[in-house]
Specification:
12 strands, 3-stranded antiparallel sheet, single chain, alpha+beta
């Protein structure tokens, strides 16, 4: 009888332990599910392996590339342009350069994208080696405040007044004037800013803000202006825009054909009387303002027949349209003088 009682007690004990283990396992499984939906908090040191985190409008994000940086801050730069007149392209390029696309220490730990030092700052600070050891820099709770402080920094200091006399499209002028006004000590600072704007086409964000009033800036170099070819441009349309012949335009730019590509740079002579360099020779062409019209080539027409119709020579017709031979296609558009 005693053996039976002992056996029953042992059996009861084994069943009880198994039930407790099952209960523990069930609880552990429940905890695992809960952890999967917990939102990870931003680390106190503002950094993580594989990228950096910053506070932008109160949201922690990682920035791993310049393209991501631009996507994140372009709208903020555009808003600053609307409010303070600083080209978004300039602001973005400065942010990219001075914060290492948001991965520099000042940007990561202080949300300071423009390296603005304390000066008369009364807010939070961070100390960082720059021109001297452990210099004082401004610290922001949100990166957008760094962008706003950058705008105010330029707008409220008299030494930057010349910037705001420049056209908003003239990002090259802004880059050079920033250096001239003492914003940076690096002699290559303007070139770096201009290079970033060109590489990432940051000027398109200026165009989005300015809308219909945006006019692509034509840089002036010596006796020439630089024109950037746009979609829909042709050698002929550009020659008419600047009142020079197609051949002059080709000679100025050492071109052998009339083929153009979007973004291509063309030199345009600024003088009323164009001096065209051809090899080592110089020749002067006096421009004549003439009204033109279009002619659509029809079946059976030749350059000779068209030239006679409009009282022109074949050579004039070729020059006007940048043609190197007499071949024509049905439907081809030609620029011609008005018929007498």
């Amino acid at each position: 009888m005693k053996k039976i009682i002992v056996f029953c007690l042992l059996a009861s004990l084994v069943l009880s332990c198994g039930a407790r283990k099952a209960a523990v396992k069930k609880k552990t499984s429940s905890k695992s599910k809960t952890e999967q939906v917990v939102i990870k908090k931003k680390p106190q040191n503002n950094s993580e392996e594989g990228g950096k985190e910053e506070v932008v409008n109160g949201v922690g994000v990682k920035i791993t590339s310049t393209d991501e940086y631009i996507a994140l801050f372009k709208s903020i730069a555009q808003e600053e342009m609307r409010l303070y007149g600083i080209p978004a392209s300039i602001t973005l390029a400065q942010g990219i350069l001075e914060s290492n696309s948001g991965k520099g220490r000042l940007a990561v730990e202080a949300n300071n994208h423009f390296g603005i030092k304390c000066h008369d700052w009364t807010g939070d600070r961070i100390y960082h080696d720059d021109d001297a050891s452990q210099e004082c820099f401004r610290k922001y709770n949100d990166s957008k405040y760094s962008y706003r402080d950058h705008s105010l920094f330029l707008k409220q200091r008299s030494r930057y007044a010349a910037l705001f006399k420049l056209k908003k499209e003239d990002y090259k002028g802004w880059a050079r004037e920033l250096k001239k006004a003492g914003y940076a000590t690096d002699k290559k600072y303007p070139d770096k800013i201009i290079s970033l704007i060109n590489r990432y086409s940051l000027h398109k964000y200026d165009e989005e803000v300015l809308g219909d009033v945006y006019v692509k800036y034509e840089e002036e170099i010596g006796d020439f202006s630089i024109y950037y070819v746009e979609k829909g441009d042709s050698m002929y349309s550009i020659s008419k825009k600047f009142n020079i012949s197609v051949n002059e335009l080709k000679a100025l730019n050492d071109l052998t054909t009339t083929t153009l590509s979007i973004g291509q740079k063309l030199r345009i002579n600024k003088n009323t009387n164009n001096t065209v360099a051809v090899g080592s020779n110089q020749k002067t062409a006096v421009k004549e303002v003439v009204a033109y019209r279009s002619h659509i080539v029809e079946k059976g027409e030749t350059l000779y027949s068209i030239s006679k119709r409009y009282n022109m020579t074949v050579s004039e017709l070729q020059q006007m349209n940048g043609l190197s031979n007499t071949a024509l296609n049905i439907g081809q558009e030609l620029q011609v003088k008005p018929a007498n």
